[in-house]
Every structure is written in structure tokens, then in C-alpha cells.
Amino acid sequence: MGGTLTLPKITGTVEASSIRYITNNEADSAQAFAAGCSGFVNLGYQDFSAVECPGSVTSLALDPVLQLQDTGANQQVGATVVQNNGNNGANRKIVILDTGYNYNHPELSSSYGGGKDFINNDADPMDDHSGGVGSPGHGSHVAGIITADGIDGRSKGVAPQTKIIAGKVLNSQGQGQFSSIVTAIYWAVNGPDNVFGTTDDFHPDAINLSVGGGAYANFCDNNDATSQAMAQAIQYARSHGTIVVVSAGNNSSGVSMPGCIDSSFTVGAVDSNNTVAGFSGRGNGVDITAPGVNIYSSLLGSNYGIKSGTSMATPIVSGIIALIKSAFPNYTVNQVENAITTTATDLGVPGKDTLYGWGRINASAAGTGSTACTGACGTLVASPASCTKGVTTSNPNCNITLSYTSSGVSPSSLVIKRGGTNLQTLTTANGNVTDNNLNAGAYIYSLQNNSTGSTLSSITVYVYNTGALTSPWLSCILGSNATNPNCNITLSYILSSGITGNVSIYKDGAFWKSAPAPSGTITDNNPAVGIHTYTLRDNSGSTQTSRVVINVASSALKPRVITSISPTSARIGNQITITGANLGNELEVARHYLTVQIHDQDRRRSTTIGVLNDANTQGTWKVDTSLRPGNYTLRVGPDLVPNNISNEVNLTILP
């Protein structure tokens, strides 16, 4: 399966003798220095650095390793109609962050707009993906889906005249690290000088991220420092006019990270029959779906091939974004997303759902400027398409200006409605109407022919309150705090002044409690073990203001037990398979890594990292280059606390 790039199966190592971590603040940096870490990487705009350490530093967050998991589609989504009507995505740009770009391929050479290799730190992002899952040429396959010229007609891209900026963030085996992905997002927005607003800015319409890891039914913005840093980068891109289009992942038990980041525009996969693919990630994070099964596209050399995965669905959406921006270059991020979600072919249960999001994307209906209109026609555009009360000095009350055009219908028959109720009867074929001082909420406006009841155009506008939902902590272990042994969760909320009535607090996606506006506290007593998402919404529940994610963990440590290792004698660089029960703790299981302790005959301890399976019953570890031939004992566990380390087994390192 060509698939999506998986984050993580964590090996934790940059090379066999070092482990790469993230430092989020000065305290982390001090701990890293004390542990002998070096190689502090200046990663640019974001508020963290990456360091390489000689051994395990359990107080620091690992820098996750990313790796591969893994056309009739144009006709299926209506892109062929758009292209036939003259829209091929000209004068638009997409940044692809992947294994690189085969700019020598006949299908791709005309669309190459430059790039950077974040693996080798040079300006040549040539795709060398030749090994590992999803090979060969994952990045070039993704690129062809967007922009292939169609020399082989089966491979023609969605937007063949769109330029591609390539960021190579994954190596020849389809592996890279989280810190490189985040750095590349800022690079895609700021340009090579890492300063937004200068002449080298790329101004992309979208960043295509066919990467992912883990499986989350709910949003994951605040799960840990890693997800927070990714969420910050994605929001930075959005606030500077770029949509971050992310695959939902190929694990049907949830949506992968960063697809589960709220600000991502997350894409699931359907087959040629518009049925959700069995591998497609599903959950609250899914926004839209697109074809992702048996997609034909460019590879390495001059070759072509078929791949399946949400990685293949994602560039279809990126390409359609280029078509929309080609037709409406002044559209905002919200207007582009609204054009896609409100015109999608609704599949599954009515409205947004966890399988299809808003439905399967429909290029010919999504405002690409490609379909000729006959009879009564009209357009309706809102400015702004979304607004937060009290934030914009020139428009603190979030007044919404609706611009409309019409043809083929008498102006006296025109009316603009808000939520089905008349807002204003019109007298001219074209003009503007203002809706003043809206409360927070989602508003559906429609331009209608009042004589026939038909809708000529519609748009959804979102108005938000400023505010925050906070907790004094983001995680709690049952029984670990004498003053709060049950991990009762206290939530403090505040909304902008002038808000009256009640607010709604949602828990794990469902309504939980009402609370009086504009501020106060509310407590969730005796929460169940697990990750809980609390959301502050308006009284109707339709508009979200803030969210916090809290992890409640069990206090019971299950004994770690190694039943066998294979082989029991190995050389430097050989892989050891460790089998047993409860080999990792909650964090290790969540991040799929294994802490391995090696003791020599003098009881000197070396701690390194391996890979842990989902069942927590088997791990793999490569014999570290720092070890010398001799007899050792091996156990698993991050420290020396009883029940947090396993029994020991014998291991011989051969010359």
C-alpha cells in the first residue's frame, strides 16, 4: 500500500549511538546539557530545539521518527470537467513535504518550482525513496497526483499547471523526524530566509502532508509538547494564508497525528464506488474524503505505478485547492475550506461524520469557476468568512458583508436569508448587504429566488468569542496526589465581556454541562482512566471557543516480564527481538518505543531505545555500537523503580 507516512514507530535514534530529543524550554535545555547532550539544532521560528544525547534522558520528549506506512480519480471528483473548461491551476503553488520530487520525470519537470532537502541540508530535494514501506518514489507519486502533465493520460494531475515547491523531509527509506516536519512547515510559509513578508516567500495555497502516526478518535492538539508544537506550526500556516492538507492515516481505529490536529484540513480515502476505504483513518478529525485506492501516478526515473492510501487522497484535495484559488485568488483559507465542505458529495450519515467528514470532494461544484450557468444563477461571498469578537480593531463586532451577483432572475425576486429567515429583500441584481453585530455561532446565508424558492448560492460564516478553557494540569495519575487522589478535573473558563446566558462544555465530543457566562469554574469528579477532551462552546453548542486535553492514567503498574530474547548472542548492529508481557508503560505504548537497559559484569548500566509493538508483548532493539564484546544482562524499563523494570536475561555480544 502506497499509503501515508507513519509517525511514529519510534526507534528514538538518529544513529546507533545517539538519541534525539526535543527541548521545549530552558529547563529542558539545562537537563540536556547535564546529560551530555550536544548538537543543538537551531530549527527556526518554533519554540523548541532538537538535541542528540549519548543515552536515555527520560525527562525529555523524544523527537519521533517518521516513516512510510503505507485515473479515474479526476473523473470521479469532477476535476476533468474543470480542466476541460480551462482551469488547470495556473499561477498557483503547492508545497509538498515528503520524500522529495523527481524533477527529471517527464510528467513533473514542467511544474518544479525549487525546494530544499532537510535530510542532507542542501537545495536539491530529488526523490531517492528506494526502500522501506511504500517505496519507490512516494513523494513523486504524491506530486504527480497534483500536477502531472498527462503525457500518460492515466496519470494526469488534478491541477497540471500548478507549481510544486518540494521539501524533502524523509530519507531514501521513507524516514525522517518530527522536528524536520515542523521546521519545514515554517519554511514553506516564511521562505528560505525564515522571515515572513520578504521577497523570498513562496505564498503557497496549501502544504501537502501525507504523513501520520498513531490513531486518535478525538482531536490531539494538547496531548503533549510534540502535538502542541505541531498544532502551533499548522495554525501559523493558516494564519498566513496557507491550508495544511493532511492525510487521515491508514489505521481505521482513529485519525493519525498531525491529521488529528484541529487546524489541519484532514483527508480520508474512498474507493471508486465512493465507499470509505477499509484502511482509511476515521474519527472526529476527518474533514473530507477523496479517492485513494489504486491511484496511478509518477515514480522514480521515468516510471509510473499504482499506490493506495490516504497519502494518495490528500494530494487530490491539495490540487482542487489550487483550482479554487486559480478561479478565486483572493479567497481566504476559510473561504476555500467552506467552498469544499459545503459542496462535497455527502456520504454516510447526513452532515459531517467520522468516516467521510463532510463527504467526498467535488471539484466541479466547489467554486472552481469552471461550470457554465444557464437560467437563474447567482453567487454569494461573505467578508469576513470567519470572525472572532473583539479581535479586529476595524471590525470588533464582527459585522459580515455579503456580496452577491445574479443573472437570469428579476432583482425584485431576490432575497438573502440567514438560517431560513429573510435577512433582506433585494432590489438590484448585484450589490452588498451587511449583517451587523452577530453573536457567536455558525450562520448559513443563502441567495434565493423568492418566486420559486430555489437557492442560487449559499455560504456558511463562523463567528467566535474570545476566551479560554484551562486546567491546572494536563495529566494526572490516580492516587499519586494526596490532595487529589481521584484526579478530579477542575476547569476554568472565561469568555469575552458582554457575553450573557450560558455556555456549553462538551466532553469527548458530546454535551456535558451548561455553565453561566462569561466566566467560572466547573469540576469533573472521578473521571475515568483515559484521555479526555473538554471543549468550551456557545450555548447552542455550534461554535467552539477553546479546548483542553487531559490524560488520566492508572496508578497500577503491571510487572514487566521478559520471557525470551532472540538471538541470545549477537554482534554490534544486529537486531534482538524481545518477547514478554507489559514491556512498556503507558507513554511507551502510546509512542511505540521500548526502553532497554544493558548491564555489564561490573553492573555499569547503558540505557537505549527500541521499537515496541501495539500489543505491548514484543520489541526489537539493535545492539548499540557503544557496547564491547562480552557478557551482559538485558532488561526493559526507564528507571530502577520496582515493577517499572523487568527481570533480567543474559545476552552475549560477539566480536
Write a brief caption for the model.
The chain is mainly β.
Q: What does this molecule look like?
A:
- The protein has 655 residues and is mainly β.
- The protein contains 9 helices and 43 strands.
- The strands form 9 sheets. Strands 36-38-41-40-39-42-43-37 form an 8-stranded mixed beta sheet. The chain has a 7-stranded parallel beta sheet with strand order 9-10-8-12-14-16-17, sandwiched between helices. A 5-stranded mixed beta sheet has the order 11-7-1-13-15.
- Helix 5 (178-190) packs parallel to helix 6.
- The longest helix is centred in the middle third of the chain and has 18 residues, at 310-327.
- The chain is globular, with a radius of gyration of 26 Å.
What does the average pLDDT come to?
82
The largest β sheet comes out as:
8 strands, mixed
Terminal CA distance reads 39 Å
User: What Rg is obtained from the alpha carbons, in whole angstroms?
Assistant: 26 Å
Number of discrete helical segments: 9
Beta content comes to: 35-45%
Morphology call:
globular
Q: How many strands?
A: 43
- Neighbour order of strands in the largest sheet: 36-38-41-40-39-42-43-37
Level of helix content?
10-25%
Low-confidence stretches: 4-17, 40-47, 66-71
**SS content category:** mainly beta
